[in-house]
Specification:
Elements lengths: L2 H11 L1 H26 L1 H7 L3 H32 L1 H9 L4 H41 L12 H28 L2 H6 L12 H18 L8 H5 L1 H33 L1 H4 L4 H41 L1 H8 L4 E4 L3 H12 L6 E12 L1 E2 L14 E5 H10 L14 E5 L7 H7 L3 E4 L6 E8 L10 E4 L1 H6 L6 E8 L6 H10 L7 E2 H44 L1 H9 L4 H38 L4 H31 L4
Parallel strand pairs: 4-8, 5-7
Antiparallel strand pairs: 1-9, 1-10, 2-4, 2-9, 3-6, 5-8, 6-7
Helix pairs in contact: 1-6, 2-4, 2-6, 2-7, 4-7, 4-20, 6-7, 6-20, 9-11, 11-13, 13-20, 13-22, 13-23, 14-20, 15-19, 20-23, 22-23
Length: about 650
């Protein structure tokens, strides 16, 4: 029998033991191939190629995915090879040389790699249509993708995974040549010692994490500690304090806590707690570093997904606020203006519902306080009458904004820039201005608001009709605002109007800007969710593999527990307690860290992140719950045997 035949026989008769590694390889290949095939899909390429930035994001994401998938497969291979050390030692006792054992392992790895490639590419091909359709939906292009098989994606995937297979084979050779026969037989019995807890470092871990949270949740004003430190040093301080605090929490605080529980006899000797606590001490010792890394990276992933999801979620609202009219432009000449209006009036797919020409004027003013940033020293305030403002709100069907009802000595300032500065906002409250017109009218600001009904102007002063009539000034420009039905579908009409208007008309199109925003945020969301989902699945798998390694090491321990009278139900309960702590640590820390980071981001962006954050956190928690029950069941079956 040749080594190749022996490799095939091993895989065939021990496939149950090979399954975890094989499933990991197939899953990784499927994910990578699916992502690469997306970038090759004609429907996606047609959209992505319009933006060089999106194309670069896709390319960069594929590199990140290669690195991550490679690490995941290498870790799975390490788990698989470590589990087979005793088998490798047995081959050595039977007379096989290290070179021959290495070649046999290479054949096994190669055969599993080929089968995993076929299955992974096959599943990826079936799923690629689904993922392309999802991508087009989140980019707001709709439609269902046609079935496309990309040979370039297949070649790309095969080359990448041949390289990864060679690396894993070299890793297997290294273990064979660097491990003695005695170590091969006794590797499973080696354990890390129970971690020594340091009360000072345990307390320091809580202080570091609490201090990082406190600094991150500081209000955005000049008196806050974060503002005094500066954005750069402040962010680095938060980052390092939370990371170091997390590492110390797992290596010192948790062992310290377990030690305190051990001293409490009432809790320690209750039920199977004595077994769970003792076992957890070893679990923390062998998993502390891995769990700390998973917690930090999970928090980073959840923060990134939550932030991207929030941006995507708020695109509709922000686009409507930023571009209140379907189309807006400056009237340069009546010929082009009439042509644009005619195009809107004759559109059948997106018929015009109304339009309005708004004359914009400028007025200089003085005040006993510092003039706001919305005031231009050369031209003064841009102003419109309250009637013109109210008509624009009615045209745009804006029910959220309050209509202006001003006395002659009152005014409203649209000042979005000032509202992000607490000091300037307070300064604007009830500020008095004297308008430099024939009557020297004195007005008082009664309100400052963010949203302007004219997209090209972020600052606008609204005054009463009577005061507007007394101001002696010449009309400086006229803004045409057009509203249509189904504005998101008005891309063709937008292109026609854009061609009809001169370049200096400053044409602003809501459907075009909405499409661009949805394309960018949609691609970022899809890539973030795609890679994030892969990452979270892989982290769950890493914890799963680590616990199965512990399970194989603990078979003898649980044999003793069975002999002293513990039944399957009691042992499963003991296992469930231990595994629950291992899964809860990265889950709780990841959610806590990301929640604080997203709260900080919410304050900075003045954006509500609640819903997308709840969705991403819910998915993350659900995945860990699935992995938890899968781990408990598999762990129990390993140490107790399958239930008959």
């Amino acid at each position: 029998m040749t080594l190749f035949d022996l490799a095939k026989k091993n895989i065939k008769h021990n496939f149950v033991h090979y399954f975890l590694y094989f499933a990991s390889m197939s899953f990784s290949i499927m994910i990578y191939y699916t992502f690469v095939s997306l970038a090759k899909d004609p429907a996606v390429v047609a959209r992505i190629d319009k933006s060089a930035k999106l194309s670069a994001v896709f390319n960069a994401s594929s590199i990140v995915l290669i690195i991550f998938v490679a690490i995941f497969i290498l870790y799975s291979n390490h788990f698989f090879t470590r589990k087979r050390k005793k088998e490798i030692g047995l081959y050595s006792l039977l007379g096989l040389r290290k070179k021959e054992i290495g070649r046999m392992l290479f054949y096994e790895n190669f055969l599993m790699g080929v089968v995993a490639l076929v299955i992974g590419i096959g599943l990826g091909t079936l799923l690629s249509k689904l993922f392309v359709t999802i991508l087009l939906q989140v980019m707001n292009f709709g439609g269902v993708s046609n079935f496309v098989f990309s040979m370039d994606a297949v070649i790309n995937t095969v080359i990448i995974f041949i390289i990864i297979t060679l690396i894993t084979s070299v890793s297997g050779y290294r273990i064979i040549y660097s491990t003695t026969l005695l170590d091969l037989f006794h590797s499973e019995s080696k354990r890390e010692k129970t971690p020594k807890n340091n009360p000072i470092l345990a307390i320091l871990s809580v202080i570091l994490i609490g201090g990082g949270y406190f600094l991150a949740l500081q209000p955005l004003n000049e008196t806050s500690l974060l503002a005094k430190m500066g954005p750069g040093p402040g962010m680095l301080t938060i980052l390092f304090s939370v990371i170091i605090g997390t590492a110390l929490l797992l290596s010192n605080f948790l062992p310290f806590l377990l030690n305190q529980i051990r001293k409490n006899k009432r809790i320690f000797y209750k039920g199977t707690n004595i077994i769970s606590n003792s076992q957890l001490a070893f679990r923390i010792g062998s998993n502390a570093r891995t769990l700390a890394i998973i917690a930090i990276l999970s928090a980073t992933t959840l923060t990134a997904i939550g932030a991207i999801g929030s941006i995507y979620y708020n695109v509709n609202k922000e686009s409507a606020n930023s571009f209140p009219s379907t189309f807006e432009y400056t009237v340069v000449d009546q010929k082009s203006n009439q042509e644009a209006l005619k195009l809107a009036e004759t559109s059948t797919k997106t018929p015009m519902t109304g339009h309005q020409e708004t004359a914009l004027n400028h007025i200089k003013a003085t005040s006993d306080r510092e003039m706001p940033m919305e005031y231009d020293p050369e031209s003064g305030f841009t102003f419109i009458s309250q009637t013109a403002y109210n008509k624009l709100l009615a045209l745009q069907n804006n029910t959220e904004a309050t209509k202006a009802d001003l006395n002659n000595d009152e005014a409203i300032l649209i000042a979005p820039g000032s509202l992000f500065d607490e000091k300037t906002t307070k300064m604007l409250e009830n500020q008095n201005f004297i308008l430099e017109n024939s009557t020297k009218q004195k007005i008082t600001l009664t309100e400052t608001i963010k949203s302007s009904p004219i997209a090209s102007l972020y600052a606008l002063l609204i005054i009463s009709d009577d005061v507007a009539k007394t101001i002696s000034t010449q009309k400086t420009q006229t803004i045409q605002s057009i509203m249509v039905d189904n504005p998101k579908d008005a891309i063709p009409l937008s292109e026609q109007i854009d061609k009809a208007l001169p370049e200096n008309a400053n044409f602003i199109s809501y459907p075009t800007n909405y499409e661009n925003a949805m394309s960018i945020s949609g691609v970022l969301l899809f890539i973030g969710m795609f890679i994030g989902l892969v990452f979270l699945a892989a982290t769950g798998s890493i914890i799963y593999f680590k616990q199965l390694t512990e399970a194989y090491n603990d078979v003898a321990t649980y044999d003793i527990l069975k002999k002293i009278g513990l039944d399957r139900k009691e042992i499963r309960k003991t296992i469930a307690k231990q595994v629950l702590v291992i899964f809860l640590i990265p889950l709780v820390l990841g959610i806590a860290h990301s929640s604080v980071a997203l709260s900080m981001l919410s304050n900075m962006l003045q954006m509500d992140l609640t819903l997308p954050v709840l969705i991403s956190t819910g998915i993350y928690t659900a995945m860990f719950i699935i992995y938890y029950f899968l781990t408990v069941n598999t762990y129990t079956n390993i140490v107790m045997g399958k239930k008959k």
